[in-house]
Amino acid sequence: MKDVTLKIVGTHIYDNVEENQLELITEGKLYEHGDDIYLTYDESEFSGMEGCKTRLTLTGDVVSMTRQGSAVGIDTEIRFEKGKRYNGFYDTPYGTVEMEVLTNELINTVDAKRGGIVNIDYNISLKGLVEGRSRLNIEVKGNELQ
């Protein structure tokens, strides 16, 4: 397991205009198991999910994101794969809602020795609450990776 620094930028897009950008720089862990690379980090008060742990599983052109902890009522998992839809549930402060994610683009260059980037462009629908497009950009850096 290696210590890494993660720069995470989430951008919501409404009517083709970028709005509500959130940037978080945090410490995390990177480890490999088989063909998978795992990134884990603790959410902060700034992200609105303090007490929650996020794990990204990177397997080639597929990225799975799992959130667990006291900040979410149920564990949340989202699977990103270009051109594919994922249906699941998303926990909000107002309860759990059905979620549908369509991944438009996914770039994963993360290597356990060199770090890299994960860029995901996706449409998300939280039934009855919101529909929109988002981008998630994650940069993985660390002295141990050199």
Describe this structure in words.
- By secondary structure, the protein is mainly beta.
- 0% of the residues lie in helices and 71% in strands.
- It is built from no helices and ten strands.
- The chain has a ten-stranded antiparallel β-sheet with strand order 6-5-4-3-2-1-10-9-8-7, with no helix packed on it.
- Strand 9 and strand 10 (130-141) form a beta hairpin.
- The protein starts with a strand and ends in a 5-residue tail after the last strand.
In short:
The protein has 146 residues and is mainly β.
User: Total domains, how many?
Assistant: 1
Question: Which outline best applies?
Answer: globular
Helix content: under 10%
Sequence of strands across the biggest β-sheet: 6-5-4-3-2-1-10-9-8-7
Which second-level CATH architecture applies? Beta Barrel
Largest sheet: 10 strands, antiparallel
Alpha carbon gyration radius: 15 Å
| Number of DSSP helical runs | 0
What is the H-and-E element order?
Answer: EEEEEEEEEE
Average pLDDT rating: 86
Low-confidence stretches: none
Structural class: mainly beta
Number of strands: 10
User: Would you give the CATH topology?
Assistant: Lipocalin
CATH superfamily: Calycin beta-barrel core domain
Percentage beta strand: over 45%
CATH class identity: Mainly Beta
* Oligomeric state as shown: single chain
Q: What is the rounded distance between the termini? A: 14 Å
Defining key terms:
mainly beta; Lipocalin; 146 residues; ten-stranded antiparallel sheet; globular
Would you spell out the secondary-structure blueprint of this structure?
Layout: E1 2-14, E2 17-33, E3 36-42, E4 52-59, E5 62-69, E6 76-81, E7 85-92, E8 95-108, E9 116-126, E10 130-141
Antiparallel strand pairs: 1-2, 1-10, 2-3, 3-4, 4-5, 5-6, 7-8, 8-9, 9-10
